Amino acid sequence: MRLPVAVPPARHETVASYLARLASLHGLDPGELWYQVTSPRPGTRRRDVDPGRLAAITGRPAVHLARALPELRHPGPDWQAWRHQPQPGCPRCDARHDGGPVTRLLPHHRYVCTRHQYWIGPPDAGQPATPLGPGLAGIIQAQWRHLRLLRRYGTAATYDAVLTGFLICGHLWTDWPGEWSGPWQRWTRRAEILIPPGAESSQFSAARIFAAAYPEAVTLASLIASPAWRRLAAGDPAQPAGHHLPADPRIPIQPGPPSHDQQAKPPAARTQHRVVPALPPRRPRHPAPRPHPARPDPCLVTRDGRHRRHDLGQPDRAAPRPP
């Protein structure tokens, strides 16, 4: 059976979402359509999608379907580089596909739809994508820098670096020194655009908080993902225990006003950060128990309470006779 309306799948769409749209457009039962395009897995009660059957009912080559549907790719993609939960994507991209809502599996490095300027980072449950207005151009530019990091350092290093950048920004945002100027004010300004004051009860989401700190997190990730900084964080044995690195101009967080002790230092010393690699904790060394003096053997004690020293390896001394 070939369906008359051969709608194409969306990019990174799940198979279940694509089949649900096909069934809705043709008035079919989703369960019946599922049994037509799947085959039972030997030894189990589960069923797997057969790319040949799906290609037969849609009229599209199996190779083209696999390009859009990650679950049909063979060999399969590196699933550690993908989010574990399907989510809605950009609403303007989804509007091109008929039949119902589109659910996608997005990789970890997709945070922004740069074409339509929507934040599609990991959303909260039930939260749609967030539009990015003209005052949030830095978030869109950060997505392009994120993709350059991915091409340069790979999936694992980039994911770890961006996540660490988010954690650093989160800690710094929590300990905000109000008298400093810098990223704290930018984070607050972006947060007020994404979550207008007074609308927190209806528009607040953790995804929008991540969007506010995304540009600085990517900037920090460009340093954290570099091999030199990763060796430093891992505690390279070739490096001394404590050394200085010059302040990198890419770091978006500038230090506060120098203290009285720092003002006495030369300007070159103020712009250096002391870095001490963090080594893994060692097992605690318990002090060795002190040997307790052994009690004398009753067989080596004479009637008058003196030890028989010759049996203990010491020269014998004759006991003085009483007068």
Question: H/E series, N to C?
Answer: HHEEHHEHEEEEHHHHHHEHHE
The main sheet orders its strands as 5-6-7
Q: How much helix is in the residues?
A: 25-40%
Low-confidence stretches: 242-246, 258-293, 307-317
Mean pLDDT: 78
Kindly state the number of beta strands: 9
Which of globular, elongated, flat, extended, rod-shaped describes the shape? globular
Terminal CA distance reads: 127 Å
What proportion of the residues form beta strands (DSSP E)? 5-15%
Largest sheet, described in full? Answer: 3 strands, antiparallel
> Helix count?
13
- Radius of gyration computed on alpha carbons: 34 Å
Class based on secondary structure composition and strand pairing: mainly alpha
Give an overview in words:
The chain is mainly alpha-helical. Among the domains are: 1-83, no CATH class; 108-236, no CATH class. Helices cover 39% and strands 7% of the residues. It has a 3-stranded antiparallel β-sheet. Strands 1-2 form a two-stranded antiparallel sheet. The chain has a two-stranded antiparallel sheet with strand order 3-4. Helix 6 packs across helix 10. Residues 242-246, 258-293 and 307-317 have low confidence and may be disordered.
